[in-house]
Design brief:
There is one protein chain. By secondary structure, the chain is α/β, with parallel strands linked by helices. The protein folds into two domains: about 230 residues, Malonyl-Coenzyme A Acyl Carrier Protein, domain 2 (3-Layer(aba) Sandwich), CATH 3.40.366; about 70 residues, 2-Layer Sandwich (Alpha-Beta Plaits). Helix content is about 40%, strand content about 15%. The protein contains twelve helices and eight strands. Helix 5 packs antiparallel against helix 6.
């Protein structure tokens, strides 16, 4: 059963602890993580460990194979490894993950968040995301599908457009990322209907995304079934810190429910805006984003602005950021009011 945890993130005698936001697919880029591996032995050993666990040259594919890093089955383990490498460096420098008031990840990032919470070992998380990426890549190749971002659309408008698209094939709302940033997913013919009708429904722009397939829709059902079977064979421990699920936008504590949510997530919408709203409502407004890019910082800005809140995200996507203290200045702080 899902359980809401009350979190006091603002202790009177010390700065507020940071929640941890973990990026998902789309944050990857050629060479991701290489600068950390060159700068810190801990990061280098993390990538070597990933290569050994998976039995593939993951680091080489991420660093030396150009656009190959954008393949779903490479991007997913690559992003997780990069985030874990950065977090291990931060831990080496004194970060206490056990003090984090919450951890959450966007789609793939949930597996990194569960490692962060002590629910998954690095090896199990890595093997799961590799399998997840392979299964999603295979599902994408079986059903021609994709995703379309609807700029300026509300959830209600996106749902109406998805229902229109569904007359031509699988089509559903896939990501509720932030106000005015909603993504629909489905078969190509269905998305063509959505894109053609978008302006009539007040959508500013409909942008077809460069992704392998229709993630977070029924196009991924074979991948979800395969992942569910793999999760049955993995030990998931109760989180040591609050873990927010994409599927529920609320904390989950029971390992069996976490497994179920991870499998459901592949075909279900990502409730990122609601998840971040939960954090703000519970007084958590300072975050750490370790990993490639600063996508989640940008989403946090939009969400905070819509709720007249303030939020600060300390991005760590470059070795120079490792020296930035919690709550200190950062080249890309995020705030909204």
């Amino acid at each position: 059963m899902s359980e809401i945890m009350e979190v006091n993130a603002n202790q009177a005698d010390q700065p507020a602890a940071e929640g941890v936001l973990l990026p998902g697919q789309g944050a990857q880029h050629p060479g991701m993580g290489r600068d950390f591996a060159e700068a810190r032995e801990t990061a280098r050993r993390t990538f070597e460990e990933a290569d050994r666990i998976l039995g593939i040259p993951l680091s080489g594919w991420c660093w030396e194979e150009g656009d190959r890093v954008h393949r779903t089955d490479i991007a997913q383990p690559g992003i997780l490894t990069t985030s874990v490498a950065i977090l291990r460096c931060l831990q080496e420098d004194g970060l206490d993950l056990g003090a984090a008031p919450v951890t959450l990840g966007l789609s793939l990032g949930e597996y990194t968040a569960l490692w962060c919470a002590g629910s998954l070992t690095f090896e199990d998380a890595l093997r799961l995301v590799r399998l997840r990426g392979e299964a999603m890549q295979e599902a994408s190749e079986k059903i021609p599908s994709s995703m379309t971002s609807l700029m300026g659309a509300s959830a209600e408008v996106a749902t109406e457009l998805a229902e229109l698209g569904a007359q031509k094939g699988i089509c559903a709302v896939a990501n509720l990322n932030a106000p005015g940033q909603v993504v629909v997913s489905g078969e190509i013919a269905a998305l063509e209907v959505v894109e053609a009708k978008a302006k009539d429904h007040g959508v500013k722009r409909a942008i077809r995304l460069t992704v392998a397939g229709g993630f977070h829709s029924e196009c991924m059902r074979p991948a979800a079934d395969r992942l569910a079977a793999a999760l049955d064979e993995v030990e998931v421990c109760a989180p040591r810190i609050p873990f927010l699920s994409n599927v529920t936008a609320a904390p989950l504590t029971d390992p069996s429910e976490i497994k179920e949510a991870l499998a459901r997530q592949v075909c279900s919408p990502v409730l990122w805006e609601k998840s971040m709203a939960w954090c703000l409502e519970h007084g958590i407004d300072r975050f750490l984003e370790p990993g490639p890019g600063q996508v989640l910082a940008g989403l946090a800005r939009r969400i905070a602005k819509s709720t007249s809140s303030r939020v600060h995200v300390r991005g760590v996507c470059d070795p120079a950021d490792l020296g930035t203290p919690a709550g200190g200045c950062n080249p890309a702080p995020t705030s909204g009011r």
